[in-house]
Amino acid sequence: MEKKRIPLKEQGKKWFIAPAITWLMLFTLAPLIYTVYLSFHGSRFLKVTRFVGLKNFVNVLTDYRFWGAFRVTIIFVLGGLALSVGLGLLFALLFNRQIKGVQVFRTLSTMPLFTAPVALGYIFMIIFYENGGPINNFLTTIISKQVPWLSNPNWAVFSILIADTWQWTPFAFLVLLASLQSVPKDLYEAASLDSASSWDIFKHITFPLISSALGTVIILRVVEAFKVFDLPFALTNGGPGLATRTLTFNVYTNGLRDQNLGAASATAIVLLVIVLIVSALFFKRYGSNYE
Description:
By secondary structure, the chain is mainly alpha-helical. It has helices at about 10-15, 20-40, 55-60, 65-95, 100-110, 115-125, 135-145, 155-180, 185-195, 200-225, 230-235, 245-255, 260-285, and strands at about 40-45, 45-50. A two-stranded antiparallel ribbon has the order 1-2. Strand 1 and strand 2 (about 45-50) form a beta hairpin. The chain is globular and about 75 Å long.
């Protein structure tokens, strides 16, 4: 029986996706598989020792530093999500109208997105500098008091949240503004004829129509917040004490500082499982919005 020949055009299409598949295999699947392998082995830097089973996971989950980092990570996820998405939605609603200079503001608002997180951390270190920094100098002039932005555990967490919000609010703003501008204007006109209040219009028209975009922003921000490392590293180096050390910071300290790749890999796998669970719950609850 003569084999069916695949047209050259179809063969060319397959080769077009070859680089993407190669990239996925080399830089996503292969590191993930190796990380899972390391998590079940005792290992030091560049040297894998014996198989230890679940010992790395037990050590990680019984370590007080893990649970402290878990608490800090959850604070960053919830706080960063509320601030960046809340402010982004607020700005989108404010600028979803004909305002002079809105195009310039929209362009300038993208600048924080292109700032390297490490560079951003050092910039805010200067801003929050306690002895001579611009914010404390202003507070000293106004109320004769200074805030221990980076030396107090609570203020240090809040400082990182401010920096994170400054960077990611433009992302939420631009996505939600684009979604708002796609809402048909005749719906608002019909609602205004019915004498509907602004809240009723937002609740019954605006919010349902932008819920898909809002959900996309939320899940992307949640995943990104779980991975936060650059800002705590540059701004506070995980301090004071362990106050701003996140789960990804634990991966860094276990893997590179202590050269315990087994513990670092186990922590990374636990973090991955947490993110997968959160994502699965999100799509189970709101997946119908994307159908």
